[in-house]
Structure formats: structure tokens, C-alpha cells
Amino acid sequence: MAEYRLEDLARESGVSARNIRAYRERGLLDPPRRVGRTALYDDYHLSQLNTISQLLRKGYNSAHIAEFFASMRQGADLADILGLQRAVLGPSEDAPADGTSVAIDPQSIEGRRLVEYGLADVVGGKVVMTDGAAADILARSTDHVLYVRALLRFLEAAEESVDDLAEAFVSSLAELYQARVGADYLPRPDEVDDIRRVVQDYRVLGEKVMAARFEHATRRHMVTSAAGYTAGILLGGEWEPRRGA
């Protein structure tokens, strides 16, 4: 599960940092995880904020939101509903801080884009990777900028497609959930574990299926690209077979 600093959560949710603090003080938003003096929020908090925002748009003020949940059928209160959100979103996993710095100017386009994509932070005037897998690969490379440019090109090209794919996946998950329990049914506390299992199983299934399809498509395009590259060299006369001794 992703984690956000206050300013990141504000940007993702569209709720100002000031209002987020106010929701925390009023008990509408769960306390964040603390790492030293840093407050870290997760997707559960983002979902809470989205729920609160939807109710505010319907004309409820913050003082009435708790009453709204308390009056829902089956006597469900805010904790029950947000507890269901936590079950659906899954447990928060503490991502280990990598701390690997890369030879990239923090003020460069590459440095700023890494931070925007959440792959790095600027610490002490250096670009420090926060994604462990990316950090491991960059640590083995001799030209960090070259690798980062290739990575950013891929991320920028895939951003819209990935968002569309994620939206389709979540829509299919919502259909699965509604088909199982009903469109407006709020599970009882003793049913939440079963809902959590169904959601997590489906997420794993979706991730594995899409990873396999991506790997298959990547292999196909790599074969085509390699063949075209080799043919281009041969046809261009820029390569000569090695002569035997």
C-alpha cells in the first residue's frame, strides 16, 4: 500500500493540508503512522478523505458526517464503513527506506520527474531513490542519467494506459463485490474477513495475469526490435562477418 506525506495526501485527495489536519482533530480521519517527526498516511486515509468529500458535496457538514454513518441501516457506524474500506484496501506495508543516491542533479528534469513519480526524494541536495528495485538497478549502472531517461520515457508513455487499466480492474472488482453481497449491502463485522480474502485474492490474480501478459507482449516486441536492429546493420553494410584465421 502506498504511503503519503501530508502534502502528497493533499495533492492526491484534492483536500487541503489544513482541512486534513482539521479532520484528524475532529476524529474523522485516523491518525497517521509516525516515523520520527514525519507523519505518513496510506491508501486507507485517502479512501477516508474521498468518502468525507463525497458526503460534503451532498450537503453534509463535517459535524453531520458521523451522524450519517451512525444512522445507516443495520446500525453501522463510521468505524464499520471505514473498517470495510481498510479490508478492501488491505494492510499497510511499511516500505523500507533504501537511501541510495544517484548521480543526478536534483534540479534537472530527470531529478524532478523522479520525485514527481514517487521514485525518489531530495535529501541533503542529492536525489535519493525510494524504490528499492529501481535503486538496485541504478546502482549497477555506469550512467544513471541514461537509465533514468529510459525509465521516465516509459513511465510517461504508459501513464494514461496504466490509469485506464487500473480503472478497468477496480470496476471489475466492484462488480465482483456487488455480485457477491449486493450493491448496497454493508457486511457485518464477522463477514469482513471473507470480503478481505476475496478482494486480496482477486488483486493477486489480476496482478499475476497482467504481469504475465506484459511479459509476453514485451518479449514479442523485443524479438521484433532485435530482428529489425540486426537486419538494419546487415542491410546498411556497417557490419562485416568476422573472418576466420
From TrEMBL:
One of its GO terms (molecular function) is DNA binding. Residues 3-71 form the HTH merR-type domain. It comes from the Bacteria. Keywords: DNA-binding. The keyword DNA-binding applies. PANTHER family: HTH MERR-TYPE DOMAIN-CONTAINING PROTEIN, REDOX-CYCLING DRUG-SENSING TRANSCRIPTIONAL ACTIVATOR SOXR. This is DNA-binding transcriptional MerR regulator.
